[in-house]
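Quick question, first post here. What does this chain look like in 3D?
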Amino acid sequence: MERKGGKRFFTASDEDILNGRTTDIYFVRTLEILKAKGMADKVALAEMTVAKLPREWPWAVLTGVEEALRLMEGKGIDIWGLPEGTIFPSRTQSGVKLPVLKIEGPYSEYCIFETPMLGFLCHSTGVATMAARCRKAAGDHSMIAFGIRRTHPAISPMLDRSSYIGGCDAVSSLMGAEAISKPPEGTMPHALVIMMGDSLKAFRAFDEVVEPEVPRVVLVDTYSDEKTEAIAACGAVKDLAGVRLDTPGSRRGSFTELIREVRWELDLRGYNKVKIFVSGGLDEKTLASLAQAGADGFGVGTSISNAPTVDFALDIVATDGTPVAKRGKFGGRKELYRCPDCFTFEVSASADDVPCCACCGKEMVPAYTKLMEKGRRLVPERSASEIRADVLNQLQKMEMP
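> Answer (accepted):
Ran it through. Tokens below.
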């Protein structure tokens, strides 16, 4: 069957994005007008800010910066910004919208790329932030990203990478695992039990066939009572590492009571080393109570992958060195500072005016890193694990209402 453009799926390729084909039409028309009027090379300074974070979040985890830099390589612009993985609020301590990135150069160099640049940051920042909030709720318990089935498969690597950076310990998808240079992790689906026709047959087959380095964690709620199948699994698989509960909400009643009951019965029979993993409709509000009930690990899907986007905007704040701004924005060049202790931010209109933290009274330090100069990257790419480590370190000082 002949398809428009020869494409099988409704997705954009790398070339489509790099060529500006994923932009809004009004940017194309804007660039056309500026070129016709001889203004295409006018220098513009733009800032990326968010007026308010979703769901009254007090902070978010910045991601998407790496993709934005890859998009803008080779263009005649300079970029300053917060490093990928920085935790930031929407506003500074004085109430000014916090500019996470600033871009300067001929406007024609980045005009049509505003849309994809925003898309890179808005979506992935929301995912990473929800993963971080789930990490705070889960404490030290293991947490695997299970959410790629709830979104378009074309973006599964981004979703898993952002989930991992935000705090998940592992991801389930093949391409997502490649993006973070880690092996994919998971247990077994209900489909295996159903196809085998019997839970114990499925447990034994998993143990016989799957490579030995994969932990033996089996799903114990397909057909029978969870504690009955959990006990049976312990007898069927010699080195059983854990059981997973994925009981539908319509059948589980109190999930915490179900976990306590399974834990009790396993411990009673000497299977105290067999861990309990849970999945199915989990979010930041449920993880702590499930951990207290005895859950050892979580598979978190929809709540992370379908996290609300962070509504960044990119606005011109100066042209040819002259401050300008639309209504509701703060014009002019700004320097960004951060308190090294409590991570409070502030802006200053002058590099000579270094602010102090209103919380602890200490002098703040520059927060921006110059990321790009005339289209040339100034900072090396960091691994997802390095960025995640920075996020986890910052999370220790963050509160979650």
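The two ends are 53 Å apart (CA to CA).
DSSP finds 14 helices and 18 strands in the chain.
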